[in-house]
């Protein structure tokens, strides 16, 4: 039996550090959507916080929005543990 590679990919990593950072600053998904220079959705932010796998491109959009909202300089390693 052949195993499909897509089924081998881990998709759920549990709550991510970005969720704690957002709580620390009192940020809601809407705050990141509003501060985004790229197009991100509330669903993307929610998926990021819950630990659902995101593409590197979406991760960068969320990183940029968070940095703008907090006026800090976080890196991807600060936000995601996968």
What's the CATH architecture name? Orthogonal Bundle
* Element order: H for helix, E for strand: HHHHHH
**Annotation field: number of helices:** 6
Oligomer: single chain
| Low-confidence blocks of residues | none
Quickly count the domains.
1
Average pLDDT confidence is: 90
Q: What radius of gyration results from the CA coordinates?
A: 14 Å
Which word captures the global form? globular
Helix/sheet category = mainly alpha
Strand percentage: under 5%
Describe this structure in a few short sentences:
59% of the residues lie in helices and 0% in strands.
Properties at a glance:
mainly alpha; globular
Give a verbal description of the structure.
It is a single chain. The chain has helices at 5-8, 17-25, 29-35, 42-50, 56-70, 76-79. The protein is mostly helical. It has one domain: 434 Repressor (Amino-terminal Domain). Helix 3 crosses helix 4 and helix 3 (29-35) crosses helix 5 (56-70). The protein is globular, with a radius of gyration of 14 Å.
Secondary-structure blueprint of this entry?
Blueprint: H1 5-8, H2 17-25, H3 29-35, H4 42-50, H5 56-70, H6 76-79
């Amino acid at each position: 039996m052949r195993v499909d590679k897509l089924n081998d990919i881990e998709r759920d990593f549990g709550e991510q550090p970005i969720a704690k950072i957002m709580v620390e600053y009192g940020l809601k998904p809407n705050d990141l959507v509003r501060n985004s220079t790229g197009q991100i959705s509330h669903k993307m932010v929610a998926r990021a916080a819950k630990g659902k796998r995101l593409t590197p491109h979406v991760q960068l959009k969320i990183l940029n929005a968070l940095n703008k909202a907090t006026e800090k300089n976080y890196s991807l390693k600060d936000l995601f543990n996968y």
